[in-house]
Amino acid sequence: xxxxxxxxxxLANSNLRELCQIVEQLDAQYQWLSLQIGFxxxxxxxxxxxxxxxxxxxxxxxxxxxxxxxxxxxxxSL
Length: 78
Description:
Largest sheet: none
Distance between the termini: 82 Å
Radius of gyration: 30 Å
Number of domains: 1
Number of helices: 2
Structural class: mainly alpha
Helix content: over 70%
């Protein structure tokens, strides 16, 4: 792949079709890379989100259990 040097002299001496193909190839590579990064971020975020929600639910459950246990006016059901 020839180096891309953007300038008036370079454009005047180059094949415009070849430059367009190179730009399209770079665009496709960047699009593929962006998709890979996006899927990777989603793959990391999903389990962390699940673990965070589970941790929060367990913490709330323990707080509610502690409140029920320490409440002096608790009512016992038969």
